Amino acid sequence: MSHTLRRWILALGVAGLAALFTAAFLELPDFGRGGHPYGDRSVAESLGRHTANVVSAVNFDQRSFDTLGEESILFTAVLGAVVLLRQTRDEDRLPPRPARVDPWVRRYALALLPVALVSGLYVVAHGQLSPGGGFQGGVIVATAVHLLYIGVDYRALERVRPVGPYEVGDAVGEAAYLLLGVAGLVAGASFLANTLPYGTFNTLASGGTVPLLNAAVGIEVASAVVVLVSRFLDQAVEITDADGAGEEAAR
Fold first, then answer.
1. HEC states along 25-40?
2. Three-state SS annotation for 209-240
3. Which of 17, 25, 125, 243 is most buried, most CB within 10 Å of its CB?
């Protein structure tokens, strides 16, 4: 393909995208208008199914199939990273070396770790009631675990973060979301339909399947982020050639 042809293809693509954006912009409601048809329907459906957080109602009820796609993208990305960064036969793992950490950094990280962990679990558990949910809370939980790496060193992180159970947790979270979707089919409705009792409004047990799907995403996201970061951190390897000479790569 010639350079001129590539430019024409790029120009046509940009022009088409600009036309779509312009058409969408012209159809936007007036600024400051009190309501919007999609927003009004979303709020009504959310309240009708006892879900106080409308965003979670959209993510895990009204458009729960889209959320399955988003969760699966992360699951596939982590799976790809695990395959690409796996240890090969010509690589030997080096034991992690101790690292000196400033005392103030250590105190701050260790003090913040339980706070971040509890906050992440709270965000996951209350996703159907207040801003947050499985995606946000899962990232916070994974971040809390890695505060041990910042506050101490990699050896301390390894002792409390065996990667194997987190890999299982990643698969369990993905499978749980799919099984909850199949439960809708078993109940005689559609895939991922909200078929459970809606419960009492503004309580942890409200929303039917919303808190369960939210928890499944929280497990998958937290586990996936831990596994993903572990694969990038655990890259201190020694590659040995046929003559036995080794070349050490610093982490």
1. HHCCCCCCCCCCHHHH
2. CHHHHHHHHHHHHHHHHHHHHHHHHCCCEEEE
3. 125
